[in-house]
Design goal:
alpha+beta; 7 helices; globular; five-stranded antiparallel β-sheet
């Protein structure tokens, strides 16, 4: 290591750049049709933390490539990242991001700030721009608990590595339009962790209802969304049994009301 270098990515770029995710050009345009794609990721904050969830479907064109892919990963103890876009490259980028954060902590002896983590992920996405222009885009969603500010925070990105902090909730992927519309209806600032989890599961259900690339809860195979909850005590992936209980509750409600729960209207009654 070069003295003073705390970035594992910079180390790779200097000594073995071919190992970086964006370094291998395909020479193809429209190459994205040849690789499985992850789709919808949603995140929402609550008082004391943040929740991120992802559906389990990966598609390749009009084919379901995988029914139980995992798209939400812990980045470190207090943050997580959800992947949308080319699945193989996205998973590789997440692994490099995890190593980057661990490497920084070992070299510097302290955890990188929330903004620092978001900036490091932006640099990795920017390094993939060449492949993104060939159709192999990776557009993750990043969230975590900011120990300094004492709040949950959410960051979205574009393919150039542009970083944007979101307020309250956000979604990325092919079903994101429908998921965000659902969360606009369901989200409240006073939600606790469990109700926030139910809101994001409802949002994924709505996304799957209108987007063929997003997979809803699979009650036959018992495949449910991956849900990560992060608070000041750290992050944890909810057990499949916990998510299944909430998903079954959502499905039961949809049997009675297919369009989902209605938003409460505020204002004077007539």
């Amino acid at each position: 290591m070069t003295p003073g270098t705390s970035s594992f990515r910079d180390f790779l770029e200097t000594h073995q750049p071919d190992l970086l995710p964006g370094s291998r050009a395909t020479g193809l345009t429209g190459a994205g049709d040849l690789a499985p794609h992850g789709t919808t990721i949603v995140a929402a904050t609550f008082e004391g933390g943040v929740v991120m969830a992802g559906d389990r479907r990966a598609t390749m064109g009009n084919i379901i490539a995988q029914r139980d892919i995992e798209k939400v990963f812990p980045a470190d103890e207090f943050s997580c990242v959800g992947i949308a876009g080319t699945a193989g490259l996205a998973v590789e980028m997440v692994r490099l991001f995890q190593t980057e954060l661990e490497h920084y902590e070992k070299i510097e002896g302290s955890t990188l700030s929330m903004d620092g983590k978001a900036n490091r992920l932006a640099a990795l996405i920017r390094g993939n721009l060449g492949l993104a222009m060939q159709g192999l885009a990776v557009v993750p969603l990043f969230a975590g608990f900011d120990l300094d500010a004492g709040i949950g925070r959410i960051f979205s990105y574009d393919v150039t590595g542009g970083r944007y902090e979101e307020t309250a909730f956000h979604s990325v992927g092919s079903g994101s339009l429908f998921a965000r519309g659902s969360l606009k209806k369901l989200y409240r600032e006073d939600l606790d962790a469990e109700r926030t989890v139910q809101a994001v599961v409802e949002a994924l259900y709505d996304a799957a209802d209108d987007d063929s690339a997003t997979g809803g809860p699979d009650v036959t195979r018992r495949i449910f969304p991956v849900v990560q909850v992060i608070t000041a005590d750290g992050g944890r992936r909810m057990a499949d049994e916990e998510v299944a209980t909430i998903a079954d509750r959502v499905i039961d409600g949809r049997m009675r009301r297919p369009d989902g729960p209605a938003a409460e209207l505020e204002g004077p009654r007539r």
